Amino acid sequence: MTRRKQAPTVGFVSLGCPKATVDAEIILTRLRTEGYELSSSYDGADLVIVNTCGFIDAAVEESLETIGEALDENGKVIVTGCLGAKGNIVRATHPKVLAVTGPHAASEVMAAVHQHLPPLSPNEHDPFVDLVPPQGIKLTPEHYAYLKISEGCNHRCSFCIIPSLRGDLVSRPIGEIVHEAEKLVEAGVKELLIVSQDTSAYGVDVKYRTGFVGGRPVKTKLVDLARELGLLGVWVRMHYVYPYPNVDELLPLMAEGKILPYLDVPLQHASPRILKLMKRPGDIEKTLDRIAAWRTVVPRLTIRSTFITGFPGETEQEFDQLLQFLDAAELERVGCFAYSPVEGASANALPGALPEAVREERRARLMAHQEDISTRRLEQRIGQTIEVLVDDVDDEGAIARSSADAPEIDGVVYVTDGHELEIGQFATVTVTDCDVHDLFATLA
Ligand code: SF4
């Protein structure tokens, strides 16, 4: 009979974007597989891992503060994630951390954990008793999951340091992604959120080589991946899709209901000169035509995009060009950031840096401008019968999302008579009203 001993316990703090969440899930799964316990408090842990974000200065600050807090409360801290790739900042601020790794570095993190908190030996823990769910450990609610399809990026946008943190594009094998998706679906996941730095580029690095899905040859291409995921019978939502010509191939799958009619297309600006300074991929001149063509194939398509206001040298006319683009594109969902210099980004050297007040004022103006457009798009849905996925149920009914709403970043659908619905359940509802971001509906 196996002798059980008190298991070493690891605390885990995860900051940052969905891609960082996926890294965290991989590390947590490995820890549990090796018999480590997980703790939700600093003092219950023998050691703490902080998964950091280094994207903008505010995120760097938050990450450094969290590391400081973990050191004060616990003392034994391993740092991983995007800020970890800038090891000198972490070490300069917190010389007492035990180890620092970059993002996507589960093996290095595990090596550091082994060094500072050795695992139980195999006869002290039983991998069949220390059960890890087959889909691994997830940090999102049970009914949706992020599915990372590649790591890194081949672009060099001047405001972004992700390529220097995460390297060039590396696509995951298609068979591995589909297998992970199948396990998630078997575990009850109802919605797969496809994430990467550049989803449209999936497979470019491996020249779209042929992989295998359940023994069948399938190309490492976005449309083939989308088709395979579309067979799983759950919602499949595409994020970080640049409007390259190959994206057109996804639209028929949306029209057939295989994947959600939703595209998250980060455009960042609409002035050709600013886009050139940003070194953005894609051709904005053609983007309006492409959007119009997409909507012809899929009239119910929801397009989400994000923009940056106050990029160095942005003139009032160029900002106005952006507002005019929003009028013409009529995007359903828009997010906007005031430009914020990121240490190490080449855009910092551009002339014409704008004061923070101007960057912020333009951001507020853009959001106010878009409000009318978003509201108009939502009003068009009043009276429609739509399918929703329930995220929460409370005294006021159910809070759900439609194909137009990605979790956490878009609006929701309040189902005012949905008290009997369950979290993770699909329901058919009729839209009765809307406000700027959200819909109100009753059961159909
Ligand atoms: S496409 Fe541009 S913004 Fe996106 S990760 Fe690559 S370099 Fe950064």
Relative strand content: 15-25%
Strand order within the widest beta sheet: 2-1-3-4-5
Q: What integer value in Å does the Rg equal?
A: 23 Å
Number of strands: 20
Q: Give the ligands present.
A: iron/sulfur cluster
- Flag low-confidence runs: 126-130
Largest sheet: 5 strands, parallel
Q: What is the count of DSSP helices, taking H or I runs of 4+ residues? A: 12
The N- to C-terminal Cα distance equals 57 Å
Q: Name the shape in a single word.
A: globular
Structural class: alpha/beta
Q: Mean of the pLDDT scores?
A: 89
The portion of residues assigned to helices is 25-40%
Characterise this structure.
This protein is 32% helix and 22% strand. The longest helix has 24 residues, at 356-379. It has twelve helices and 20 strands. The strands form six sheets. Strands 2-1-3-4-5 form a five-stranded parallel beta sheet, sandwiched between helices. Mean pLDDT is 89; it is low at 126-130. The protein is an alpha/beta fold. A hairpin with a 4-residue loop joins strand 19 and strand 20. Residues 153, 155-157, 160, 162-163, 197-198 line the site of iron/sulfur cluster.
